[in-house]
Specification:
about 110 residues, 4 helices
Length: about 110
């Protein structure tokens, strides 16, 4: 009986966690759209800038990737993905940039 309770508790926690992840993903995608990121980027397709899945693959497993990418997004620049520059994003809060970058890296 005790094993059944533990199993049910674990299953319930997993289901709730998936709901939180889905909400974070939806909220982060909406935040990226609201912030103007999706004008040049898409999840799976390169437009002006790289696809977010390409970015996630490039930085997969790299320690400090969130902070590194957040700084790049904030400052803008060119050369990492081609010659078309990404404009600086000083109008987006550091907290929002980190939320978007965290979402991208989880793709």
């Amino acid at each position: 009986m005790k094993k059944m309770k533990v199993l049910l508790l674990a299953a319930g926690t997993a289901v709730l966690s998936l709901g939180v992840v889905a909400n974070v993903s939806a909220d982060s995608a909406a935040l990226a759209t609201k912030s103007g990121c999706m004008a040049c980027h898409q999840v799976e397709t390169k437009i002006v800038g790289p696809a977010y899945k390409e970015v996630a693959a490039k930085y997969k497993g790299q320690e400090g990737a969130v902070d590194t990418l957040a700084a790049k997004v904030k400052a803008g620049g060119s050369g990492a993905w081609g010659q078309i520059p990404m404009p600086p994003n000083a109008h987006i809060s550091d907290e929002d940039i980190k939320a978007i970058v965290t979402w991208i890296l989880a793709l």
